[in-house]
Amino acid sequence: MIKKDLLLTPGPTTVPAKILLSMAEPLFHHRTPQYQKLFSEVCEGLKFVFRTKHDVLTLTSSGTGAMESAMVNLLSAGDQVIVVDAGKFGERFGDIGKAFGIQCDIIKIPYGKAVDPQVVGDKLKSGNYKAVFTTLCETSTGVVHDIQGLAKVVCNSSAVLICDAISGLGADRLEMDEWGVDVVVSGSQKGLMLPPGLAFIALNDKAWKLTETSELPKFYYNLAQYKKALKKGDTPWTPATTLVVGLNEALKTMHAEGYDEVIDRHARLAESTRAAMTAIGLELFAERPSNAVTSIKVPTGIDGVKLVKVIRDELGITLAGGQGDMKGQIFRFGHLGYCSEYDLVSGVAAVEQVLDRLGYKFKLGDGLTAFQKVIRSRQKLSV
Ligand SMILES: *Cc1c(COP(=O)(O)O)cnc(C)c1O
User: Fold this and answer.
1) Which terminus of the chain has fewer CB atoms gathered within 10 Å of its CB, N or C?
2) Below-50 pLDDT ranges, the chain
3) Given ligand 1 and candidates 164, 166, 190, 295, which is best to mutate, with the most ligand atoms within 8 Å of its CB?
4) Domains of the chain with CATH codes
C-alpha cells in the first residue's frame, strides 16, 4: 500500500518544494552585503504580513521564545498583568509570567469559548495593569478571539495588548496598526510555511516605551539589541540564515497572492471543513472558529485517540488530537499555510473512512459532498 504523508496539523505545516529547495543552496556568511539585502527584503515582507509599519524582529527560537521575549522586555518583577487563558497557549503566557515573578491575573475561559472583550475591559479598571496577554487563534481549541474588540478596550488604558499570533498569522485577519494591537508575536512553522526555528515580534511605540522601564533580566532576548542591530540590517547574534532564505521565498509568495486573498483562502478552507464535519453529524468545538484550525468533538462511543492514530499510522495523514484535558475529546484539522482544498479532501475522506470502520453511523460520502458544495460556491475558477 502506498502511504503519502500529508500534514494537516496546526504546525508544523507543509513546506512547499520551492521553499525547501531555496534552503538547499550553499551557505553564505551573514555579515555581508548579500545577507543584509536578503534580510532587509525579509523585514519588509514581514511588515506586510504583520500589517504594521513598525519593525518586525526576527529571533532564532521557536514561537515560545517570542512569547517570553514579550514578557521580559516589557515588564518588571511584581508587575500586574491580565492573561486570557482559553486553552493551552493562553495558559503558557501565565506560566512564563509566573516563572519571572509577574503577578498574572488569569481570565479563565472554558475550552472552546472566546473571551468577551468587555470582561477584559472591566478587569482592567480593577487594578494597575501593565499588560494584557492573549492569543489570536487559540490553537488547542480552534477558537479565534476578537482581537479588534480587545484592542479597543485596552487602547483606553495605560496597558499594552500582546497578541500571540503564532498560528493565526496569515490565516485569521489581524491588523496590528489599524486595530491598535501593541505587540504581535509569531513563529515560522505555521502560516508562514517554513520549518520550525524562527520567531517574530513586532512592537508599536507604546510598547517600545514600556521596554524602557522593564527590569526583568534578559540577554539573548534583549529586544533593544535587535532594534539596534536592525539599523545596520543585521541581528545581534548569528541568524538562522537558511531559514531566513526560505522565509524570503514564503513572504514573496504571500505578497504576490495578496493579504486579503490569503485570508479569504483560509476562510474558505475552514468553512468547507466545518461543512463537511457537520454534514456527517459531528459537532464543532469552537464557538468562534478560527480559519487556521477546525476542532471537532469526537462522537460518543468513538475512541478519539485511536481515530487520529489510525489516520496517521495507516493512511499517512496527520491530524491533531486534543491536548491536555481535551485528549480524546476533540480532533483538529490544521488548514493553514501551504494547504489546498484538495489536501483537505483527502483529510475529510480519511476521517469518514476511519469513523465508518470504528462504527460511527453516518452515510459515507456526505462530508465530502458538503465540502464540494462549499468549494463550488466559494472558489473562483475560469470555468
Ligand atoms: C504553536 C503555538 C505556540 C508554540 O510555539 P512553539 O513554536 O512550539 O514554541 C504558541 N502559541 C500558539 C497559539 C501556537 O499555535
Assistant:
1) C
2) none
3) 166
4) 6-12+258-378 (3.90.1150.10), 17-257 (3.40.640.10)
